[in-house]
């Protein structure tokens, strides 16, 4: 779910020149391909996060920034997630685990607090460790976001 975020290009500019970005929207991917056509290491693909079209163990790093939040957008009680949302989250995380190489990292950036997100991430079936930290500028009125790092193996 890269959307129209400049994150992929920012990573490219920092020297990460082998970046694959996906989104469900063909229009979005077409726009991003056109916008960053001058960056040969950036690849764009229309894809559903629940059924990734990549071979097993394809990536050293999988990064998502708010994409998984979409799976929870219709939930009315974050303490009691519907079976459908929980199943969708499990499906996506199983796909992420599948495409990660041993030793690879899954990085998730979200506003979802640990007591809501950790039960989804910390499942033995995914074969990864889990760490998290709160990020933000320290202002009392500011929202914090959370960085979760899962390492496979």
Automatic annotation (TrEMBL):
This protein's UniProt keywords: Methyltransferase, Transferase
UniProt superkingdom: Eukaryota
Residues forming coiled coils: none
Example of a GO MF term: S-adenosylmethionine-dependent methyltransferase activity
Family membership: Belongs to the methyltransferase superfamily.
Organism encoding this protein: Sylvietta virens
Name the UniProt record assigns to this protein: EFMT4 methyltransferase
Pfam families, A to Z: Methyltransf_11 (PF08241)
Domain Methyltransferase type: 1-107
GO BP terms: methylation
């Amino acid at each position: 779910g890269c959307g129209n975020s400049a994150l992929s290009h920012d990573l490219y500019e920092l020297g990460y020149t082998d970046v694959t970005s996906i989104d469900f929207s063909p229009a979005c991917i077409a726009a991003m391909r056109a916008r960053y056509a001058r960056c040969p290491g950036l690849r764009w693909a229309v894809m559903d996060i629940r059924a990734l079209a990549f071979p097993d163990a394809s990536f050293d790093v999988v990064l998502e920034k708010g994409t998984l939040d979409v799976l929870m957008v219709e939930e009315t009680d974050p303490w009691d997630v519907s079976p459908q949302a929980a199943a969708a989250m499990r499906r996506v995380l199983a796909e992420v685990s599948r495409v990660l190489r041993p030793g690879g990292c899954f990085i998730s950036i979200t506003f979802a607090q640990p007591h809501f997100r950790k039960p989804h991430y910390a499942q033995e079936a995914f074969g990864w460790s889990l760490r998290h930290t709160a990020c933000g500028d320290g202002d009392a009125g500011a929202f914090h976001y959370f960085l979760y790092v899962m390492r496979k193996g």
